[in-house]
């Protein structure tokens, strides 16, 4: 059974999506295809939006970077989020290089906000904190720095 033809054009639908929030090109493509538009109509709508600079993967990646940092995420988690949204690897790499964030200090700030100055007195507590920081997207060196964990884990 074929889907009923959408009532508005692919361009109108694309503009509607972009008026609510920024999207990655791939993400917008999937949404429009799911609504039943032909691949050609979707491609034309995306090109139209790019011509007017309403759809820009680099701008979207920069916004994801800012939001991720505000949420207390590390570089690994932010990079993963960008890939999940369909941003091309070169744009992801360029955005990560252009950022001026000290990931070690970001990790320390997140750890301080979460755990305060409480002691890491048991191996179980240390493991819990390491897992939390890994989930947030920090690498091992950043976690060690943030938790002042000099001994071997």
Biggest sheet: strands, sense, closure?
none
- Helical amount: 55-70%
Our estimate of the beta-strand percent is: under 5%
CATH architecture of the largest domain: Orthogonal Bundle
Give structural notes:
Keywords: Cytoplasm. Residues 10-49 form the RecX first three-helical domain. Residues 100-147 form the RecX third three-helical domain. InterPro entries: RecX_HTH_1st, RecX_HTH_2nd, RecX_HTH_3rd, Regulatory_RecX, WH-like_DNA-bd_sf. The protein has helices at 10-20, 25-34, 39-51, 57-70, 75-84, 89-98, 103-115, 123-135, 140-147. The longest helix is centred in the middle third of the chain and has 14 residues, at 57-70. It is elongated, with a radius of gyration of 21 Å. Helix 4 (57-70) packs across helix 6 (89-98) and helix 8 (123-135) packs across helix 9 (140-147). It is 67% helix and 0% strand. The protein has 3 domains: 10-51, Arc Repressor Mutant, subunit A, CATH 1.10.10; 57-98, Arc Repressor Mutant, subunit A; 103-147, Arc Repressor Mutant, subunit A (Orthogonal Bundle), CATH 1.10.10. It has 153 residues and is an all-alpha fold.
